[in-house]
Design a protein that fits this description.
Rossmann fold, about 300 residues, DHBP synthase, transferase, binds magnesium ion, L-threonylcarbamoyladenylate synthase, binds threonylcarbamoyladenylate, about 20% strand, T(6)A37_SUA5, alpha/beta, 4-stranded parallel β-sheet, 8-stranded mixed β-sheet, tRNA processing
Length: about 300
Amino acid sequence: MTRVLPFSDEAIGEAARLIAAGQPVAMPTETVYGLAADATDGEAVARIYAAKGRPSFNPLIVHVPDVAAAAEFASLSSEAEQLAARHWPGPLTMVLPLRPTGGLSSLVTAGLPTVAVRIPSHPAMQALLRATGKPLAAPSANASGSISPTRAAHVLKSLGGRIPLIVDAGPCARGIESTIVAVDGDRLRLLRPGPIDLGLELEAVGSIEAPGQLASHYAPSKPVRLNAERPGDDEYLIGFGDVGGDFNLSADADVVEAASRLFDALHEADSAAQPLIAVAPIPEEGLGAAINDRLRKAAAPR
Ligand code: TXA
Ligand code: MG
């Protein structure tokens, strides 16, 4: 069952309780409705993908209440600080170098060394950020492949029955997703056009919408063998269920837990002593399909 509650202190209290319990909650922002979950909790982030029915993992935008909260897990150059001062809170997302010690789940960034961050201005999202005290990962609150929701009714139509709560604050003021700009030192690259015009040309590559666009620098540097029941002599085995391995994605064979640990496993395997990587079979059900999509890309010849 999906409840729809009008924005109020009680609704934010209920949303915060669900977030603390690891559930995703649909929240209004000034751009579009977002499906928010605790960005430090890998299983909570995996439940976002499960609810959206996404067949692959796409890095997500992390929402924070202020610049100090962003600086916990992202590095802001002076250029980034200037953009923040000018446009935050508001519909600007900055892709910044990730601080690996900042506590974000690696599923949020899909294992990338960068993180997309924004400070939303909407009072409901601000209230939830302050109530939870957590950075909140939130993609648009629609099922994979459908259009972004600008009203609670759109979210209900797309995700009804798949999420516990929608906080309704009426239509979104902007109605289109945030501008995304990558900030690397003093270099700016526009990845997605949006409400904020920075006078930049759109990058040919754009934002990482298709998983195939994910930069190869985070793919493992070693050959990967799939559907391995046991490791060969030179292989680091990523296990699942009864296939133990050097790093088990989920001893209980739970695909949500496995998704939350996938990118940690790939990084571990890549830095291990063994020159080769093998991965146990993962069932194709639910999030297993997204895990297998990622693994097939890791195993594809480069
Ligand atoms: O207005 C918005 O930005 C809304 C609200 C809810 O905040 N959110 C939103 O999220 O549009 P989503 O997941 O639908 O779009 C996020 C975009 C994707 O194209 C993704 O590839 C890109 O941001 N992205 C996220 N992290 C990135 C990274 N580290 N590098 C490059 N692109 C990234
Ligand atoms: Mg979207």
